[in-house]
Structures are given as C-alpha cells and as structure tokens.
Design brief:
It comes from Pantoea brenneri. This is Beta-lactamase-related domain-containing protein. It holds the Pfam family Beta-lactamase. A 9-stranded antiparallel beta sheet has the order 3-2-1-15-14-13-12-11-10. A 4-stranded mixed beta sheet has the order 7-8-6-16, with no helix packed on it. It is of the alpha+beta class. It has a single domain, classed as Beta-lactamase (3-Layer(aba) Sandwich), CATH 3.40.710.10. Strand 7 and strand 8 form a beta hairpin.
C-alpha cells in the first residue's frame, strides 16, 4: 500500500468512527479501477463490516443512467432530444403538471423545464421520507407526481435552472412508453448487462433483493424532525441518527432509486467518460454547459471547479444513503464515494458523501493514488 493510500484509508476509518456508519470509495483512471476501500460497518447493531461487495443507494446519480438511455435512443434515431414530452406520453399522464405538455426531452434532462419537484412538497416529504412513511411500501412509478398536480410552474421552459425530480419521473415514463419495457428492463438491457453490473439495480422490484445492501441510516437532527418527522417504522440508532431501512427507494424511481457498489459505479463512470456507452457527439451534448446555481449543468451531468480543474459528475442524497461520482477532466482521475448515511431535510452542514467530496485532503489523496497507479 502506498503512503497516500494508507493515509486515505486512515482518514476514512476515522470518519466512520466519528460520523458515518460506512464509507466505500473507489478511485479510477483512464479505463481501470485503481484503488478501492471499504470503511466502517454496513450494519451498526450487528457489527457487520463494510466490504467491496456492500451495495448502497446512489440517489440522483440514477439520473445519469436515465440520460444515457435517452442519448442511446437519440443515437438510434428513435427519438430526438428536442421532441416534446407530449409526443410520447398520453395527455392523461401529463394532466395537472405545469409545463408538461410543452417541455422537451432536452429541457427535462437539463432541469430547465420549470416543472415543480415532488421532493419539495411537504406532503411528499412526510409520506416518503418522514413521519407518515409506511414500512415496505412499493410506490408506483408515477405516484410521486400526484404531489405536484395543480402546482404552478417555476419558470417558462428553457428560462431558468430549477432542479426537479419530477422531470426524471416523466423521463422514466417516457422510456417505458417508448421501449415497451419497464425502466428496470431498459437499464438491464442497455447498461447493467453490457457492463456486467451484477449488483446494480433499481430498488423496489422486489424488496427481497436487499441481501448485500448496507443498512440505511439518516441524520435526524432538529431540522429533519421539523421538516420531515420520524415515522413509527424508523428506529433510533446513535445520537441524531435513525435506522430507516423499513422505507423503500421505489419512491425515488427514475430520479434516485438505484442501488450499486462503489466498484460497479466506478465502472459505469469510466465507461461513460471514455465513450463506451454513448458516442462522442452524445458525450459532447451531455457537456454543453448552462448555469446551475454555483455549478453548471449539461444533460444530467454537473460541472464544478476544483483544485484539480473541472470536475464532472453528479451527487445523490436520499433516505438512508448519500453518494457522489465525479471525474476530473484535466487529470483523468475519477472518484466515487458511497455512504449509508443520508442527510436530506437535515441541516445544510449535516454529514453526507458530498461533504466528503468537498474535503480537500480526500481529493488530494485520491489524485496521489491515481498518479501512483
């Protein structure tokens, strides 16, 4: 083990002793996995050690998989990115959803559709992640959209960036309508099987597939209690931390419902950046940047600045998990971080994978490991 790898291992071990139940990290460069490490416990109560085979929710990184399928369909000339959503979904499926009849696939992929996000609706938060959650409920793919029916548009299409999970629920429905397959089947056919992603799946179909999953914990600080609340099916774990494994990520579906391991998510990232999943033109389309708050957005990919140049990728944060997957264009280093601690609806400074990614020491050591690999 190199000195940098030893330092990063110790840093991750320290983080799991203090703040996180488990952290899995994968580092890659060019077309290969360079290094991976699993720290902490996949299950705290049973002292089940985290391992390279432990699976975690990847949250909104799911959106990048959805985008890949749509770019592939565009390459096959079965759709165009500027098709209106209404060309593929029935009026009844779009009824009551602001802007849904006029937005294009491109606008949905870039969060420039102006469609409200179900994730921002108090009723959805209570039922899906909070006090009214029901154990083992499997949500219908379109069920979350009920929480934005009748809500006003946030902006005109193409006018302004508003991050919207609703857009990706609609894109998942489009994929199912167009291909005649479930989204899970489309993911299997087009991404999971070609890349041999054997532990990667879309949660909810069925729930019995959880045998390698890390137990799900969530930060339950005062902010979370106020905005989400604690369901009877959630159980206390540590101070300000609850076990939320009774809930299902099927509620997130195409917007954030996937499960994977650090190694398999790294395989996907390397395949995407190297052009193994989409052609060069599609990859350029995914990286046509527009303003997105403090970052920039392409088609389901974000671009942010770092000490090592532009970083391209996505983060994820759902009930019980947080994740990030980024590659650095100038150094060709890629970094995946998965944890079984979610922080959505908790205070902004709550621990999550993205806070680990923003730790300069972690990114520096990852690059040193890349250079040594």
């Amino acid at each position: 083990m190199t000195a940098s790898a030893d330092q990063l291992s110790k840093l991750l071990d320290e983080k799991t002793r203090k703040d996180f139940p488990a952290i899995s990290v994968a580092i890659g460069r060019a077309d290969r996995l360079i290094w991976q490490y699993a720290a902490g416990y996949a299950d705290l109560s049973n002292r089940l050690t985290n391992s390279a085979d432990t699976a975690f929710g990847i949250g909104s990184i799911t959106k990048v998989f959805v985008a890949v399928i749509l770019l592939q369909l565009s390459e096959e000339r079965q759709i165009t990115l500027d098709d209106p959503l209404s060309a593929w979904l029935e009026p009844a499926q779009l009824a009551g959803i602001a802007n849904a009849r006029v937005v294009t696939i491109r606008q949905l992929l870039s969060h420039y559709a102006g469609i409200p996000s179900w994730e921002d609706q108090p009723g959805w938060i209570h039922v899906a992640r909070g006090k009214d959650s029901v154990a083992d409920k499997v949500w219908r793919p379109d069920e979350a959209l009920e929480y934005i029916h009748g809500k006003p548009a946030l902006a005109l299409p193409d006018e302004k960036f508003y991050y919207s999970n609703s857009s990706f629920t609609l894109l998942g429905m489009l994929i199912e309508r167009f291909t005649g397959n479930t989204l899970e089947q489309a993911l299997n056919q087009r991404i999971f099987r070609p890349l041999s992603l054997k532990q990667t799946r879309l949660e909810g179909y069925p729930l019995s597939d959880r045998h390698n999953d890390a137990t799900r914990y969530h930060r339950a600080d005062a902010h979370f209690i106020q905005h989400a609340g604690i369901a009877g099916c959630f159980t206390p774990e540590r101070a300000a931390m609850i076990n939320v494994s009774a809930a299902s990520l099927s509620v997130e579906w195409a917007a954030g419902g996937m499960i994977s391991t650090a190694g398999e998510l790294m395989r996907f990232c390397l395949a995407l950046k190297n052009g193994a999943l989409v052609n060069p033109q599609s990859l350029r389309e995914m990286q046509r940047w527009r303003p997105a708050g403090e970052a920039q957005i392409g088609l389901s990919l974000f671009r942010t600045d770092s000490a090592f140049g532009p970083a391209i990728g996505h983060g994820g944060n759902v009930l019980g998990y947080s994740a990030c997957a980024w590659w650095f264009r100038e150094t060709d280093c890629a970094l995946v971080i998965l944890t079984n601690l979610g922080s959505m609806h908790a205070a902004a400074e709550a621990d999550c994978a993205s806070r680990l990614f923003s730790n300069p020491a972690i990114v520096r050591l990852a690059h040193e490991i890349c250079e040594g690999g």
